[in-house]
Amino acid sequence: MYYPQNLKTLETNSNHISQELLETVERYINNTMTSEELKSFETRLQTDAAFKVQVDDIRTLLTGIESQALKEQLDDFHKAIDSNKTQNSQAKIRYLNVRRLVAAAAIVIAVGSFWFFNQNSPENLYAKYFTPDPGLPTTMSNQSNYEFYEAMVDYKQGKYKSAIEKWNAISQKNDTINYFIGVAHLADKNENDAILFIEKSVQNSSFPLANDAYYYLGLAALKNGNETLAETYLKQSNLEKSKALLSELLD
Amino acid sequence: MREAYKIEHQLQLIDAIKANDQVALKQFYVGNYSKIETMVLKNSGTIEHAKDLYQESFIVVWNNLKSNTFEPKNETALQGYLYQIAKNKWMDVLRSKTFKKTNTLTDETLAVLKQESNDDLDEEDVLNSRVKTVMEAFKNLGQPCKQLLTNFYYEKRSLRDLASELQLGEASVRNKKYRCMEKLRNIVLSSKS
């Protein structure tokens, strides 16, 4: 991290914006200043008009960059709307073809999965059912949750070890953190730790993700080869996929 | 999608939009278009008008959200705000001379639209002209700089992350980013004069 030693020494030559000033404004906008720095920054904004002009200029630059980047993305978003429409208008023409394709695909999948999952071994079931939790939308704006979401970004990118490390570093762990540490452990092929952490999250009976938690607990037990435990867990989850997995397990 | 996830998601939608979360932005964009398209089509406009108007309004709303000019209490308030801005903008278009020349019946349309709302375009309904200048400059900035600044400021990726992707040291990415900002600033300064 690069913190300027003293804000008062930052130059205010209006034709020049220093790297230091740019990064100071970035910290201000991202809410990552220490309270001390924030205080002296805001005091200077009020007392030094030239400084304020420079800060406003930087803000305008950043707003412009983000606005243009968003603008260039909107046409891409719009394709989702356009394709919905064309699908509707062409639906009738495609209908038969799609039906045939779906039927053919269903047969292939049915035959294939019958052959592949015939044994219903725990390993196969696990591989069939396990996909990591999609995670929560990452919002960096909230300062108090910054560490949590920073780890969430790693998690979503599949960097489970680094996500676990960051979540572990948070001293006050709530159910959600324990849950995601556990799921990350599971994705990282660490079933025992997974069970340990996800178990902590379901200690609280009102945990909103409890159904998901029991689903992953079931999977972790299954991966460990403990089918009886897996059944116990899965019975406590009312997700469709839990029920499906449970019925396959009991077959 | 899972129930619990959905609830969390709604609470966080506004924060997520502010943080440029791609999923949230797209969901919000796609989900609010049809209502505004209907409004434009009913009032002498075409699908092309609707798309342009919508995108412009969307950027204004997102900007006001980020600058805390507008602080919605929930998702519905945000949707209403987007619609209101689009409508005000459309009334402005209908009033314009160039539009009147090529279209009849706009006066009656205007009267109907006006009944529904009596707000005129406020200052906050349009993008600041200085921001527009920067947008134009950034649009034409060289690709490597544009990419880097987009990654950092729009996608909110960390220097560390970008450094490992570009296989450079963190310090040199940091310097690169600064030089790119200087480049952009110079284009802005020269386009003003």
Question: Could you characterize the architecture of this molecule?
Answer:
The complex is a heterodimer of chains A (251) and B (193). With 251 residues, chain A is an all-alpha fold. In chain A, 71% of the residues lie in helices and 0% in strands. Chain A is built from eleven helices and no strands. The longest helix of chain A is centred in the first third of the chain and has 68 residues, at 49-116. By secondary structure, chain B is an all-alpha fold. Chain B has two domains: 3-125; 130-192, Arc Repressor Mutant, subunit A (Orthogonal Bundle), CATH 1.10.10. Helices cover 77% and strands 0% of the residues of chain B. Chain B has ten helices and no strands. Chain B has helices at residues 3-18, 22-42, 47-66, 75-95, 97-102, 106-116, 129-139, 143-154, 159-166, 170-192. The longest helix of chain B is centred in the C-terminal third of the chain and has 23 residues, at 170-192. The chains are: A mainly alpha (251), B mainly alpha (193). The interface between A and B is large, with 38 and 54 residues.
What is the CA–CA distance across the termini of chain A? Answer: 57 Å
Distance between the termini of chain B: 52 Å
What is the overall number of helices of chain B? Answer: 10
Major beta sheet summary of chain B: none
Helicity range of chain A = over 70%
> Measured on Cα atoms, how large is the radius of gyration of chain A?
26 Å
- Principal-axis shape of chain B: globular
Mean pLDDT of chain B: 83
Q: Count helical runs of chain A.
A: 11
Which strand-content bin applies to the residues of chain A? under 5%
Low-confidence sequence ranges of chain A? 1-5
CATH class of the largest domain in chain A, named Mainly Alpha
Task: State the total count of DSSP E strands of chain B.
Answer: 0
Which short descriptors sum up this protein?
heterodimer, A: 251 residues, mainly alpha, Serine Threonine Protein Phosphatase 5, Tetratricopeptide repeat, 2 domains, 0% strand, disordered N terminus, B: 193 residues, Arc Repressor Mutant, subunit A, 10 helices, 77% helix
